[in-house]
Amino acid sequence: MSQTDLAFADLLAKTRYSAVHLEMRDSYGIGEEAAEFEAWRSGWRPSPEPDTWWNDFHAMVREAVARGVVFRRARVVSEPVSDYIKYEHGCTYQNIAAGELVRWLPRRKASDLTLPGNDFWLFDSEIIMWNHFTGDGGSAGPELDERPAVAKLCATAFDAVWNRATPHEEYRV
């Protein structure tokens, strides 16, 4: 497990009621996901059987949900969507199976929202894990932030996106 994964796991283990994730990029190029995306572009599709894709992340989410943590993920996307977003949309059933709630917001509908400059996780409306990326979508490492005013900004931004976004089951790519 990477240091990023260990930091996430530690934060999640301490989370009492809420974990939200705001994603705002149209493509990512992170580790094994980049290879899987390229395979997807060549026609491969993941099996619907959980034993073929279930991993530590899914197990952590399921455990947190079982103890009462509500997991929400919102994605702000350009339309028409990129191939990467098509791939992500097609694999989101995995997040949902683990217990996440997922919504999608077309970028045009977010123009009047105040949003942070980076993707983030927000745990219990108090601790932010910023997700920094390179220009080509690779991870540039996380950064923890516990400033109350910034956590409030993130919570407000996430809720604004969530309230406008379309539930995964209804969003068509």
From TrEMBL:
Domain DUF6879 stretches: 8-172
Name of this protein: DUF6879 domain-containing protein
Highest taxon listed in the record's lineage: Bacteria
